[in-house]
Write a structure and sequence with these properties.
Layout lengths: L46 H4 L7 H9 L14 H5 L4 E7 L11 H11 L5 E8 L2 E10 L22 H6 L4 E6 L1 H18 L3 E6 L8 H11 L6 E6 L4 E6 L4 E5 L15 H4 L11 E4 L7 E5 L2 H8 L5 E4 L3 E2 L3 H15 L12 H11 L2 E2 H22 L4 H4 L2 H7 L4 E4 L3 E4 L5
Parallel strand pairs: 2-4, 4-5, 5-9
Antiparallel strand pairs: 1-10, 1-11, 2-3, 6-7, 7-8, 9-10, 12-13, 14-15
Helix pairs in contact: 10-12, 12-14
Length: 433
């Protein structure tokens, strides 16, 4: 169905009932770790082979999951969108015709999982729900009733050991699973999937992925909320949108839109985002069956259907979902080069160059009109993350360059004068014409 009204208002859900706290072992201390949950399992040593931040092998996992690796450009060839976004069959803008109460957008992610449970295609869904003590803190949960997926709607911020629930679920007899996860969780899940099938009898696995680039602790997220509102305790919703605005909603129903340039990002401490998030090479969750995000959407969500399982997940929604082709406008190169200069300063310990206050409203007005939009906005964000990865690893952990940086990231940064030298550190090279 064609989306003719992407601005349908989203209703607000009542506060969900609390879940029981999962009984999880503590995570061992590690420098490059997002606490995906694998280190909290009976065999934490698997992190050495399964962690995105140690020695990722995206081509091998893409071939196993999707039947082929992403297409990289050959000499003299133009880059396809698979370089930026990973293997996919189709990309769409989408929204539910009837938005679900409490959803971050319209509820596509949790509705797909709900339909999987309703149709009996899975025994359980592993997802995130709000912690009973803090609605912003994510808590991994095992969902077996379709109606309970409503309690998983909305955005959380913080580390969440999602994978710690996978093996206990299989041991309880739930052999057909769906997992909703972010890229670092999904990479580790895919890496151990053959073991789960072989040793614990995993029969079916659907992976619904959401994009991610920057995470932080829940405590630090609360600090960020305090910088954008005098009453952070009353904020019930926050979303970074592809139109260069952050939308926040208050418990009393008031809505405020803040231009990106007005956010107090330059006042945050240098380690507000951990090194893992500053060196992420998989913004778009390339190993999921379907990615549901925002970057390539313009007033709607952005779907990447990656394989036959992903198509089957989208087909579950039938006429409930409205879709249209994604748009693309503007030029990303200038924005990415400006970002590169600021990251170079930050990685070198220098203060960020701040735009004069008088200029911010002008540029904030211009960006949604002449800046990269739609798919070009998504390409820009992916290139920015690649640039950030190379520069921060060069300064903080140069020995990891040859093992942590996959080939697709090298292709992404080459037009901006970055390349691996000796496969160990990035060196400046003449930018592409």
């Amino acid at each position: 169905m064609v989306d003719t009204n992407p601005q349908t208002p989203r209703p607000t859900a009542p506060d969900p009932a609390p879940w029981d706290l999962p009984d999880l072992p503590p995570a061992p201390p590690r420098h490059f770790c997002t606490d995906c949950g694998l280190s909290r399992t009976d065999n934490p040593k698997r992190c050495g082979q399964a962690c995105q931040f140690i020695q990722p092998d995206y081509p091998a996992l893409e071939r196993r999951v999707h039947g082929r690796a992403r297409r990289l450009p050959g000499p003299g060839e133009a880059s396809s969108d698979e370089l930026f976004f990973g293997p996919h069959r189709q990309m769409l803008q989408a929204r539910l015709a009837a938005p679900l109460a409490g959803a971050q957008w319209t509820g596509i992610t949790t509705r797909i999982a709900e339909k999987l449970l309703q149709t009996g295609q899975v025994d359980a869904v592993i997802a995130m729900a709000p912690h009973p003590d803090d609605a912003w803190r994510p808590m991994p949960v095992l969902v077996t009733r379709p109606e309970d997926m409503a309690r998983c709607r909305g955005m959380r911020m913080g580390y969440a050991p999602l994978l710690a629930l996978v093996e206990p679920a299989l041991r309880q007899g739930f052999k057909r699973l769906a997992v909703i996860g972010i890229p670092c969780q999904v990479y580790a899940l895919r890496a151990i999937q053959p073991e789960l099938e072989r040793e614990l009898g995993l029969e079916q696995l659907f992976v619904i992925g959401t994009p991610c680039s920057d995470n932080t602790t829940t405590e630090r997220f609360h600090h960020f909320l305090s910088l954008i509102s005098p009453r952070p305790q009353d904020i019930s919703y926050l979303e970074f949108r592809a139109d260069y605005h952050v939308e926040i909603r208050m418990k009393d129903g008031k809505v405020r839109e803040i231009p990106f340039l007005q956010l107090p990002l330059s006042t945050l401490p240098p380690d507000f985002f951990p090194m893992t998030c500053r060196t992420c090479v998989d913004y778009t969750n390339a190993l999921s069956d379907i990615t549901v995000g925002y970057m390539g959407g313009q007033g709607a969500q952005w779907l990447l259907v990656r394989n036959a399982r992903g198509q089957a997940l989208l087909d579950l929604l039938g006429d409930e979902v409205l879709t249209q082709a994604p748009g693309s406008a503007g030029q990303r190169a200038g924005a990415v080069r400006g970002f590169l200069k600021n990251v170079e300063r930050a990685a070198g310990g220098l203060p960020l160059r701040r735009m004069p206050d008088w200029l911010r409203p002008i540029v904030g007005w211009l960006m949604p009109r002449i800046g990269p939009r739609g798919l070009e906005f998504a390409r820009a964000r992916v290139e920015m993350k690649a640039v950030e990865t190379m520069l921060h690893l060069q300064r903080e952990a140069p020995a990891r360059m040859k093992t942590m940086v996959p080939e697709h990231v090298v292709h992404l940064v080459r037009p901006y004068g970055l390349a691996r030298e000796g496969a160990e550190r990035p060196a400046v090279v003449p930018p592409a014409a």
